[in-house]
Amino acid sequence: MLAAAIAVSWPGEVAAQEGGFQTPINSGDVIPIPTGRAGEPGFYISAEFMMLTQTRALGRQDIAYRGFFDAQGAITGVPGTFLGTGQVGLNTNNMGRREFQPGYRAEIGYKFDTGTRIYANYMQLYDAHYSSGATQFTRGFRARADLSDTFLSSPVFNFTVAFGGPELDTAQDVAGAGFNTAGIWNAADVMDTKFVQRYQQAEVGMRIPMFATEYSSVYGLSGARFAWFFERYTWRTVDIDQTGNAPPQNVAVYTNTLSQRMYGLFIGCGHEIYLGNMFSASLDLTAAAYMDVAKQRAKYRLGDDSTQSKFGRESFDVVPSATADLNLWVYPVEGVQLRLGYSGMTFFNTRYMRDPVGFNFGNIDPLYGTKYFRLIHGFNVGIGFFF
């Protein structure tokens, strides 16, 4: 960081050293394509494919249990009594292994005759999808004699009559005690969850030469960076009636969206080493500080979208970050660069859904926590052209 700070204030006539490090080039025949010559000033563009994975920032929360509540007391004589083993039927942690997300990064820039470069780039990772679900059929068909464990229930409360569910839901309802299992989330038949993660980044910066020899080059990096974490948790509940039907009025959908837009500055340095002929290797290290604007939105809605309950909140945090990029460069012809590398990005003090579901329908308040360490890492391969 100190070296990069010196580079920003270094006199222009000293930054470019005569006889210093030169970009490796291929000594073979020149291919007739409209690119510039190595070392000359001009515009350049690049595009690369990325395959990264990131921390799945989701807490462990029990969502549903095996059994149901005797809402009116038609079975036990005591309203609110829970029938069943109460085994966990659905948990936010049961979503399989972490996925790699494909994506791309595009960059445009200009190189001056002093060797200084200014650039702007944009990176987009495609969504990572995780899901899990539970139904009335338990593993091995193991259940109590009264079949209470074939139902799924969640402790949602304070909801309106619009979310009351089917009138005829269990045998007791058919016998005359309608709505004995009141609530779509009481004695439900199917529940499924989904978690989506997305990451985007944009950067405007400059690369300033600091020191160069025939086989090595040190440069400073600085600029502004935007990073965006988008995460959404969805929980869908279906309560089938005694006739086997589940109209939209018997379906409830809960969503929790956490959007973190971060704005900040970065500074760092890099070192490129000539490996021979048309190959070189580089290591870039940067540190950044962001202002994190986190928007938290949660809501319950009926399957037909006729009614819903909403929650919203915003928070602001300072998020430090560190990034490392290790790359192998290949220069097959003049004005063309190929790159294969590995990148790692760390973020400290971001928000995450610790308990994504708030069960109080009338005052939804899911629990958000602080993720002290979040990591994005993976491989990249791309090509660049100088004009």
Summarize the structure.
The protein is mainly beta and 387 residues long. The protein contains 3 helices and 17 strands. The strands form 4 sheets. It has a 10-stranded antiparallel beta barrel. A 3-stranded antiparallel beta sheet has the order 5-2-8, with no helix packed on it.
Q: Could you give the order of the helices and strands?
A: HHEEEEEEEEHEEEEEEEEE
Number of strands: 17
What form results from the Cα inertia axes?
A: elongated
Q: How many angstroms separate the termini?
A: 31 Å
Structural class: mainly beta
Average pLDDT works out at 87
How many independent structural domains?
Answer: 1
* Spatial sequence of strands, sheet with the most strands: 1-6-7-9-10-11-12-13-14-17
Describe the fold and architecture.
It is a single chain. With 387 residues, the protein is mostly beta strands. It has one domain. It is 4% helix and 56% strand. The strands form four sheets. A ten-stranded antiparallel β-barrel has the order 1-6-7-9-10-11-12-13-14-17. A three-stranded antiparallel β-sheet has the order 5-2-8, with no helix packed on it. A two-stranded antiparallel ribbon has the order 3-4. The chain is elongated, with a radius of gyration of 29 Å. It starts with a helix and ends with a strand. 33% of the residues are buried. The N terminus is likely disordered.
How would you summarize the topology of this molecule?
Layout: H1 2-9, H2 12-15, E1 42-54, E2 62-66, E3 68-70, E4 81-83, E5 88-91, E6 101-111, E7 117-135, E8 152-153, H3 171-174, E9 190-212, E10 216-238, E11 251-276, E12 279-302, E13 308-330, E14 336-347, E15 350-355, E16 367-371, E17 374-386
Antiparallel strand pairs: 1-6, 1-17, 2-5, 2-8, 3-4, 6-7, 7-9, 9-10, 10-11, 11-12, 12-13, 13-14, 14-17, 15-16
